[in-house]
Amino acid sequence: MRVSVDNQVCEAHGQCNTVDPDLFTLDDDGYSDIGVGKEVPPGKEVAAEQGVDVCPVQALRLE
Ligand code: SF4
After folding, report:
1. Cα separation, 50 vs 29, whole angstroms
2. Which end of the chain, C or N, has fewer beta carbons within 10 A?
3. Ligand 1 pocket: which residues have CB below 6 Å?
């Protein structure tokens, strides 16, 4: 499983980081810095799905 952010869409709301700060890292301005195709570590699949679901602007996606 991989997770990606669309940096054109992310508005630095930070909810993804609240779900799992290790998986959904942010830059100094509060924008997601996970990039494209970040590998979801074993055991983090549920957190990945929850983080994607809470993003208010649908900037995250799973593959
Ligand atoms: S919740 Fe969405 S808008 Fe907020 S930092 Fe994460 S990806 Fe960006």
Report:
1. 22
2. C
3. 5, 10-16, 24, 31-32, 55, 57, 59-60
Interval 12-57: pLDDT, tens = 999 999 999 999 999 999 999 999 999 999 999 999 999 999 999 9
**Residue 57 and residue 63: Cα distance in Å, rounded?**
18
Q: How many domains does the chain have?
A: 1
Domain span including residue 29? 2-62
- CATH of residue 16: 3.30.70.20
Ligand 1 atom closest to residue 58's alpha carbon, by position in its atom list: 2
Ligand 1 centroid vs 44 CA: distance in angstroms?
18
Q: 35 CA distance to ligand 1 centroid (A)?
A: 12
What pTM does this model have?
0.94
